[in-house]
Amino acid sequence: MVQLSKTEQVVNEMDNYGLDILALSEVRWTGAGSQTLKKGSTILHSGTEKKKEAGVAIMLSKSASRALTKWTPINERIIVARFTGRQAKLTVVACYAPTNEADDTTKDNFYNTLQAVAKDIPSHDLVCFVGDLNAKVGSDKSYCPEVLGSQGLGEINENGILLVDFALTNDLIIGGTQYDDSHGGGGGKGAHGGGGYISGGGGKH
């Protein structure tokens, strides 16, 4: 759970790492809204109406806050923000997927909703799905070379299969499998000419 009193500390950490956009999962705040923090930063959040469970948020630096043109709280597991840059528009979707042990109905509901969100993103936008996808996609790039790189670990699990299918459907790559973090690649800095990338998809989990 992310306490409101702790957000100032997160802002400082964002500054230290030079981050403009940070996705937060399992924040457990009720309802949806935005708050202005110190240094001109902003936090956008989306949760359930009553229960303090799940919950997602996107924290923005001052510059990212100025570039924000629209944001949409979908539910307690998905929040969307759109930004206008100098040369392109960017849509960021912060996600908190059900665990691998969750029932099939819960997983299907999540991915059906996520697919509906993906379908509504303007085709010319740069796209980034970030957060905790609770998935392992494994080290076998040959399973789906259009989506996976060679830097995954372990064996793919059920959530990993769902994630790979989602990425393939939407012309995305899973960023955490594309680069070797030990060489400074940065697990989420994937790129794809026709689509976007997924960061936090489980390549290194």
From TrEMBL:
Signal peptide: none annotated. InterPro entries: Endo/exonu/phosph_ase_sf, Endo/exonuclease/phosphatase, Swc5/CFDP1/2. Gene3D superfamilies: Endonuclease/exonuclease/phosphatase (3.60.10.10). It comes from Artemia franciscana. Residues 184-205 are annotated as: Disordered. Residues 8-139 form the Endonuclease/exonuclease/phosphatase domain. Pfam families: Exo_endo_phos (PF03372). This is Endonuclease/exonuclease/phosphatase domain-containing protein. One of its GO terms (molecular function) is catalytic activity. The lineage of its organism: Eukaryota, Metazoa, Ecdysozoa, Arthropoda, Crustacea.
